[in-house]
Description:
Blueprint: H1 22-31, E1 46-47, H2 59-66, H3 76-89, E2 93-97, H4 100-111, E3 117-120, H5 125-133, E4 137-140, H6 161-170, E5 178-182, H7 195-207, E6 211-215, H8 219-229, H9 238-247, E7 251-255, E8 266-270, H10 273-286, H11 297-310, H12 313-332, E9 345-349, H13 350-353, H14 363-375, E10 377-378, E11 380-382, H15 384-387, E12 403-407, H16 415-430, E13 439-443, E14 454-457
Helix pairs in contact: 1-14, 2-11, 3-11, 4-5, 4-10, 8-9, 12-16, 14-16
Bound molecules: ligand F0G.
Amino acid sequence: MELPFAELYKIKMVETIKQSNCEQRKKWLREAHYNVFNLRSEYVFIDLLTDSGTGAMSDKQWSQMMVGDESYAGATSYIKMKETIKELFGFNDFLPTHQGRAAENVLFSVLVKEGDIIPGNSHFDTTKGHIEFRKASAVDCTINQAFDSTLIHPFKGNVDLSKLKKVFDENSPEKIPMVIITVTNNTSGGQPVSMQNLREVSALTHQYGAKLLLDSARFAENAYFIKKREEGYAEKSIKEIVKEMYSYADVMTMSSKKDAIVNMGGFIGFKERELYEKASVYNIMFEGFVTYGGMSGRDMNALCQGLYEATEFDYLDTRIRQVEYLADKLLAYGVPILQPTGGHAIFIDAKKFFPKIPKEEYIAQTLVVELYLEGGIRAVEVGTLLADRDPETRENRYPTLELVRLAIPRRVYTNSHMDYIAAAVCNVFDRRKKIKRGLMILKEAPIMRHFTVELERM
Ligand code: F0G
């Protein structure tokens, strides 16, 4: 018999999770106003809300926590982080921040001003939020293939060079300080960007005098896909691939809660000393002194160890194969999911799942609600709620794809949990025709409404 694939880790510490029944879940969901961000986590059986800050640290990461240096200035933990970032990404300077959006806030305080245009590949919501908050605009230049959920393309996170060139040609260069490439591209389905695309976008961006920023939350997963899918990279190590990816960038923002496998943390990596110096002023104001900026020494230590582990092929292979394991089960049942499967999550195509529910009734959020009722699974909407309103017209922005993301935390759940998730999704799929109406909004915030929105069933 052929030996099956098995996780390349064993479990040393466990955390109890509780099952609930459908009546309880109905009550809790009503109390949460049909917004799963408002649920108490103890009311959730399997939490797929995010893979951010929810990973399990390794024994080596925990041991690093014990030797953190909590000195205000010049801590050994800071020096370790500086050396790690230099070794992995090739950047000489960095600023620690408490998480990814804080890195955006600090960096954009230097780079983005009113009226600017920031092209990229489907900017993440906090990134877009920080751009729009500064009265600048984010222009999505992702390749069209990314919006066809069943089309198989190895690098659906890629930037369309002709779209990008058009943005450069139609605007004066001083309005475009940078281009942002998100690796992997979370918003369009955890899809990777190819090395060739990074190289070409970098060349074009520099030709027009702008900087290339890599939004790096899932950089290691992106490198894994390059190794697996791009010609010429099969024999290269993940660390070599990462080094090349960053040779094309000028600056990086990192949410360490993903591919550094820590619960909290972030940083900005810089190639240019001048930009680092300008950003340092804002880091001190918003985050903390430049050698800790919002992070404890112990957390910086665990982060460095996490970066080394996340750039090991075996770790990535275990992780991404678990996501594929779940995807294969859903595909075998006919559930419409985004293909090929992304790195950190499965994205269900909610418009195909519920073709009868009108777009005004928040199709993807309706599926989020049903998954919770069915099995206590907490997923997240990547659809009209997340897309928010147009800042000018205040009309709903209806994205091409209405997605439900099942984000898989790193090293947390076993394949039995994947089996359970698959069964719950398939049960909702079986009764999908009976669900004809969606939800309506009762209350919402002016920006990033999805976190706090209150809804009611139609
Ligand atoms: N960039 C990307 C691509 C992200 O996915 C996130 C966070 C951020 C930046 C912001 O980082 O949360 O540390 O402030 N994504 C989380 C998610 C929240 O669930 O995908 P942060």
